[in-house]
C-alpha cells in the first residue's frame, strides 16, 4: 500500500510538472477554488509531494509545486516556502525579485515577514549593508503589536539575525501600550548567541516581574548548563546570580535560585551561606540546612557539613532539628578526623568520647542518638583500647526499645569489636543475626560480607567464596565491588599457591587488629617463599595500607605505584590508583600528580566502580 501511494504521488507530480507553465515571478492569485472535498484532497497531495521533494533536496521540483499552490490558494506559507526553495537553489536574484514584488503589493503582516526574508537574500548575496538597512528600517517601522513583534523576532532568529531580534525586543519593551518587557525572549536569544551572562540577566529580570515562573526559569537555566564545557557558562551564571542575590537581599526567590544553582555545581559553601542568610532573614530554613549538611557530608565536604550542623546547634536548643544537628555534628566531626588523620591523638579521642557521653545523657538513648552511641563504642574499642567498656555500652543499648535497623547497627559494631578481640564465634553469630533479620537491606548485605571476610580470615576459603559469589550482585555497588575483589583474590591465589593465600589471610586479620608487626612478618614470608604475579600486588597493597596507617605517606605512595605500574592488569590496580590519588591530593599536597592518577583511572579502567569518584575529584582539583 505504501508503494502504491508513493507511485500515485510521483505520477501526480509528473502530471503537474508537465501541464503547468511556471513563470519566474509568482503572479498574484486571482481566485481560490471552491472549498470542496476534491480540491482539499488535491491540495493535500500537492503539499505532501512538495514536502517530499524538499526533504529529498529536489528543490526545483518543490519550488514548482509551492509556486503553483500559492497561485491557486494564495496562502503566504506557500509563497515563503517557494522563496526558500529559490534560496536553496541559489537563485538569489529571482528570490529578491519575488520578495520585492510581494512587499510592494501586500498590506498584511506578511509584508514584514518578507522583509526579513529579503534581508536574508541580501546577506546571502554578500550585500550586508543592504541587509542591515532593511532590518533596521523594519525595526523602526513595525506596528506596535506584541504578537507581531514576536512573530518578526522569531523570523529574525530563524535566519540567525539574533542581534536585530534583540534590538526589536528592546524597542518593544519601551512601548507603553504593550506593557511587556520581552525578558524571556531576550534570554532565549542571548542563549542562542552563547552570551550566557546576558541570558542569565534576562531570565532573572523576567523572574523579578513574574515570580510564579520560578520553575520555568529554573528549567531554562538547567538546560543552559548543558552548554558548559570549559566552565565558562558556570562562571557567567554564578557571577550574575551572586550579584542579583546580593543586590536584592530581601528577595527570597533569588536566594533560593542561587542555592539551587550552587547545588547543581556542588558548590556547597555558597549554598550554605545563602541558606543561613535566608534563615536569619525569613526563618524556617532549618530543614534545608540539615538537608544541605547531609549532601555535603556524602560528598566529603566535611567543613561545610560541620558549619551547617554547628549553626543549628548554636541557634536554639528548642529547635525542631536540634537533636538531629547534635548527632550530625558529632558524626561528621568524627568522620573528618578519621579520614583526614589530623588531630588524631589519644587526648582528642578521650575528650571526644566524654563529649558523646554527655550528649547521650542529656538527650537520652533513642533511635535518633543511637548513631553517636555507636561512635562512642568505636572510639573506646579501637582508639582507646577500652574494649570491655565498649561491649558493655552496646549490650545495654540492645535492651532498649530501639528500631530493628538501629539494633542491627549496634550488633554490627559489637560483632566488629568481638572480631577485633579475636572472639570469632561471637562475631559470626552477631553478623548472622543481622544478615537473617535484614536480609534484603544494605546492612544485611554488609553483615553477610563481613561474615564471609571473617571466614576468609580463619582460612575457610570455600565457605567465604560461596557467600562472596552471591554478594557480587548485591544492590550496593560498594559491597558488590568488595565482594568481587575478595572473591578474585581468593580464587586467583588458590590456583597459584594455597600457602600464600593462608599467609595473606592471616596478614589481613592482623591488619584488622592493628597488629602491624605480625602482619609484616606474614607478608615478608610471602615475599620470600610465595612471590608470584597474583600474590605480589596483594602484598604491596597491604604494606601500603599499613604505611598509610602509620603516617609514612611517602612509603605508601611508592608501594601504591608499584601496584598499578608493575601490575596494571591486576584487579586491584584501579583501587591502588584511587588510593594513591587521594594520598597525593590530601596528604602530600601533590595535586598535579593526583590529577594524573585520577585521569589514568578514568581512561584505563573505564568500567571501574571508582570512575565516578575519580571524575568528581579530578574536576574538583582542576577548578
Shape: elongated
The CATH class of the domain at 1-105 is Mainly Alpha
**By helix and strand content, what is the structural category?**
mainly alpha
Treating each run of at least 4 consecutive H or I residues as one helix, how many helices?
33
The CATH topology name of the domain at 1-105 reads Serine Threonine Protein Phosphatase 5, Tetratricopeptide repeat
Structural summary, described in words:
It is a single chain. The chain is mainly α and 623 residues long. Among the domains are: 1-105, Serine Threonine Protein Phosphatase 5, Tetratricopeptide repeat (Alpha Horseshoe); 518-622, Alpha Horseshoe (Serine Threonine Protein Phosphatase 5, Tetratricopeptide repeat). It is 77% helix and 0% strand.
Brief descriptors of the model:
623 residues; single chain; Serine Threonine Protein Phosphatase 5, Tetratricopeptide repeat; mainly alpha; elongated
Amino acid at each position: 500500500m505504501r508503494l502504491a501511494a508513493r507511485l500515485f504521488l510521483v505520477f501526480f507530480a509528473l502530471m503537474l510538472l508537465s501541464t503547468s507553465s511556471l513563470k519566474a515571478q509568482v503572479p498574484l492569485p486571482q481566485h481560490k477554488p471552491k472549498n470542496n472535498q476534491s480540491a482539499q484532497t488535491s491540495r493535500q497531495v500537492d503539499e505532501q509531494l512538495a514536502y517530499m521533494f524538499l526533504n529529498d533536496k529536489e528543490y526545483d521540483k518543490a519550488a514548482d509545486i509551492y509556486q503553483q499552490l500559492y497561485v491557486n490558494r494564495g496562502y503566504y506559507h506557500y509563497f515563503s516556502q517557494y522563496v526558500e526553495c529559490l534560496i536553496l537553489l541559489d537563485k538569489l536574484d529571482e528570490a529578491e525579485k519575488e520578495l520585492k514584488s510581494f512587499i510592494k503589493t501586500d498590506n498584511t503582516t506578511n509584508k514584514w515577514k518578507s522583509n526579513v526574508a529579503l534581508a536574508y537574500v541580501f546577506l546571502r548575496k554578500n550585500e550586508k549593508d543592504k541587509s542591515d538597512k532593511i532590518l533596521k528600517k523594519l525595526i523602526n517601522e513595525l506596528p506596535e503589536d506584541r504578537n507581531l513583534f514576536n512573530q518578526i523576532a522569531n523570523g529574525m532568529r530563524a535566519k540567525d539575525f539574533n542581534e536585530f531580534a534583540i534590538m526589536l525586543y528592546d524597542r518593544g519593551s519601551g512601548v507603553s501600550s504593550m506593557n511587556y518587557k520581552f525578558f524571556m525572549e531576550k534570554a532565549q536569544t542571548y542563549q542562542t548567541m552563547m552570551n550566557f551572562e546576558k541570558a542569565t540577566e534576562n531570565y532573572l529580570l523576567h523572574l523579578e516581574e513574574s515570580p510564579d515562573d520560578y520553575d520555568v526559569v529554573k528549567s531554562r537555566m538547567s538546560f543552559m548548563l548543558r552548554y558548559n564545557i570549559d566552565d565558562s557558562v558556570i562562571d557567567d551564571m554564578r557571577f550574575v546570580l551572586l550579584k542579583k542575590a546580593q543586590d536584592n537581599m530581601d528577595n527570597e526567590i533569588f536566594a533560593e535560585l542561587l542555592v539551587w544553582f550552587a547545588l547543581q555545581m556542588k558548590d556547597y559553601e555558597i549554598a550554605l551561606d545563602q541558606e543561613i542568610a535566608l534563615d536569619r532573614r525569613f526563618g524556617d530554613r532549618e530543614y534545608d540546612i540539615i538537608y544541605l549538611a547531609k549532601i555535603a557530608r556524602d560528598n566529603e565536604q566535611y567543613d561545610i557539613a560541620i558549619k551547617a550542623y554547628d549553626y543549628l546547634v548554636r541557634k536554639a536548643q528548642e529547635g525542631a532539628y536540634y537533636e538531629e544537628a547534635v548527632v550530625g555534628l558529632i558524626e561528621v566531626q568524627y568522620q573528618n578526623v578519621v579520614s583526614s588523620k589530623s588531630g588524631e591523638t589519644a587526648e582528642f579521642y578521650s575528650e571526644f568520647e566524654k563529649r558523646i557521653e554527655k550528649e547521650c545523657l542529656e538527650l537520652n538513648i533513642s533511635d535518633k542518638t543511637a548513631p553517636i552511641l555507636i561512635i562512642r563504642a568505636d572510639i573506646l574499642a579501637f582508639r582507646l583500647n577500652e574494649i570491655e567498656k565498649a561491649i558493655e555500652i552496646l549490650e545495654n543499648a540492645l535492651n532498649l526499645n530501639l528500631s530493628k535497623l538501629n539494633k542491627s547497627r549496634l550488633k554490627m559494631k559489637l560483632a566488629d569489636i568481638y572480631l577485633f578481640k579475636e572472639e570469632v564465634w561471637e562475631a559470626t553469630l552477631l553478623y548472622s543475626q543481622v544478615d537473617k533479620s535484614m536480609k534484603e537491606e544494605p546492612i544485611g548485605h554488609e553483615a553477610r560480607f563481613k561474615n564471609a571476610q571473617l571466614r576468609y580470615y580463619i582460612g575457610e576459603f570455600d565457605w567465604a567464596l560461596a557467600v562472596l559469589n552471591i554478594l557480587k550482585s548485591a544492590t550496593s555497588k560498594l559491597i558488590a565491588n568488595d565482594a568481587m575483589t575478595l572473591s578474585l583474590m581468593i580464587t586467583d591465589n588458590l590456583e597459584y599457591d594455597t600457602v600464600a593465600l593462608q599467609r595473606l589471610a592471616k596478614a589481613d586479620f592482623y591488619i584488622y587488629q592493628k597488629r602491624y608487626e605480625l602482619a609484616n612478618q606474614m607478608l615478608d614470608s610471602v615475599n620470600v617463599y610465595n612471590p608470584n604475579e597474583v600474590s605480589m600486588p596483594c602484598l604491596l597493597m597491604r604494606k601500603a595500607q599499613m604505611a598509610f596507617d602509620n603516617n609514612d605517606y611517602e612509603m605508601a605512595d611508592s608501594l601504591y605505584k608499584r601496584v598499578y605500574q608493575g601490575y596494571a592488569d591486576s584487579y586491584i590496580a584501579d583501587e591502588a590508583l584511587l588510593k594513591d590519588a587521594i594520598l597525593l591530593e590530601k596528604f602530600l599536597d601533590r595535586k598535579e600528580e593526583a590529577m594524573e592518577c585520577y585521569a589514568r583511572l578514568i581512561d584505563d579502567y573505564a568500567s571501574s566502580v571508582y570512575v565516578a569518584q575519580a571524575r568528581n575529584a579530578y574536576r574538583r582539583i582542576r577548578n
